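A quick word before the example. In earlier lectures we treated sequence and structure as two separate objects. From today on, think of them as two lines of the same record. Here is UsfY protein written that way.
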Amino acid sequence: MSDRIRQNNARSAAEQIAPRPNGSVMTYGLVGIALAGLGMAAFGQFYAVDILAYPLLVVGLMSFAFASGIGLRKARQIRHHNAYKAEYSERSSP
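And the structure line, produced from the sequence above:
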């Protein structure tokens, strides 16, 4: 079996185990910010708190959400890479 065929087979098997992240780092970060904003708005409405009165808290939570989105993408990328390496080594051994 040629190396190219092994790579393709390992790549398709790794996609089943741990799919590659589709979006960019920026997309994951912006989705994190949007979800944090929705969460803060729901919190503010439920507890009748003006969240915008605490700008440092808002900026801190948004920064944390952005970093968490980037961390999630990196974790998914690592998981996919490890699955690919495992599948490739499994297919290359006779």
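Notice the following. The CA atoms of residues 40 and 46 lie 10 Å apart. We will return to this example when we discuss secondary structure assignment.
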